[in-house]
Amino acid sequence: MILTALFSASLVAVTGNTPASAVNVRYQASKSCTVDGQTFSAHILTYGRPTEPNTFTEVQLWGYKYERGMRAQYVEARTVVWRDGSWQDAGSGPGWEADPPADGEWHRGDNQGGPQWIGYITADRPKAILVRGFTKGEIGHEHFCYVVLRPYDLKWIG
């Protein structure tokens, strides 16, 4: 516990006032979807909650949970933008993991993509995080479901 507190304090000094850390989160967006009859869940944690055009907040952490016993293959978090009536890929995303655990527990996703921001480019063009959970299908065919975690979905968690 003391080591964790010291490590978190040193991150603040090195990376600025809001490093990617659970210490700095105040909002969470969480959703679930069903693939192969089982539940996949994902969430993001942020420091702020954008509500106006041209406002953004950094995604501090993202995570996922596969229902126990699922044949988990791959999980991927991508940045998306609402354009022309659908979610469009906006380049990179927070990260991905191959062979994620399917134990019914929450797992922290890796942030290979660097800092990611969600918010509103304009009033009707939000930028969000799309998280896909892939499972192993029959003879190499993968199945997936996805959730879109929007600025609107962020709820206060303290």
Any overview of this molecule?
This protein is mainly β. The protein has one domain (23-156): Sandwich (Immunoglobulin-like), CATH 2.60.40. It is 9% helix and 51% strand. The protein has one helix at residues 2-15, and strands spanning 27-35, 38-46, 55-66, 72-83, 86-89, 95-98, 107-108, 117-122, 125-136, 142-149, 155-156. Strands 1, 2, 3, 4, 5, 6, 7, 8, 9, 10 and 11 form an eleven-stranded antiparallel beta sheet that branches. Strand 1 and strand 2 (38-46) form a beta hairpin. The chain is globular. The protein starts with a helix and ends with a strand. 29% of the residues are buried. Residues 1-19 have low confidence and may be disordered.
Which features does this protein show?
single chain, 1 helix, 11-stranded antiparallel sheet, 158 residues, mainly beta, disordered N terminus, Immunoglobulin-like
